[in-house]
Amino acid sequence: MIVNAEQERRELNKTVLEMLTLCISQIEKATDAFLIHDIDLAEQVMYTETHVNALDIKIERDCEHFLALYNPVAIDLRFVMATLKINFDLERIGDHAFGISKYIVDQNKKIDPHLFKVLKFDVLYETITAMFENITEAFENNDVKAARKVFKQDKILDKINVQSFEIIENEIKKNPDVIDQTLLLFGVIKKIERVGDLVKNIAEEIIFYIDAEVLKHKKKK
């Protein structure tokens, strides 16, 4: 069977979408496990990390093969460059899912629902979920508008992350017994905030691939 560049691009795109879907699922499962203190679910996420790593290696090799075989230029070259960077960011998202799950298994601490509420964990989760939906839409349909939506959403995560330290400090002053829970919760908030940054990176790469617009290092307005 003769395979051309367009067919290989479609196959590579399909694999990256599989990786994207898997990493999103990993974060959602890890966060759900944290919310309901489900150690079995956390261990499932940790076990699935091997699949994430396998896809990471496959995408890297397929990109190298595409570069070597077709010597791409213009949009094809941007596609491969963007794919390599997106794959790197997705693998790191998978790492954060693994890290959250490891917290749950190793520390085995149930979080007081009050702490979830005051630290706006529901808003955090809703926001990262919306970012996942937008980035999937952007990737599947080459939708630059959907990709740009994640920039504003990422600022919500940043704000919650910044505010969390002061809130945790106040909660510990009121009740020193919650220090272990708050530190664990703070660690998970930091990881989700970093996932938001990685999703933003992916959005930038999608825009770069489609519109040849480089957003990285642009001055903030």
From TrEMBL:
Entry superkingdom: Bacteria
Keyword Transcription in annotation: no
Domain PhoU: 16-103, 125-206
Keyword list, A-Z: Cytoplasm, Phosphate transport, Transport
Location relative to the cell: Cytoplasm
Main location: cytoplasm
Function, as annotated: Plays a role in the regulation of phosphate uptake.
PANTHER family recorded: PHOSPHATE-SPECIFIC TRANSPORT SYSTEM ACCESSORY PROTEIN PHOU (PTHR42930:SF3)
Family: Belongs to the PhoU family.
Subunit organization: Homodimer.
Protein name, per record: Phosphate-specific transport system accessory protein PhoU
Protein species of origin: Lutibacter holmesii
Lineage: Bacteria, Pseudomonadati, Bacteroidota, Flavobacteriia, Flavobacteriales
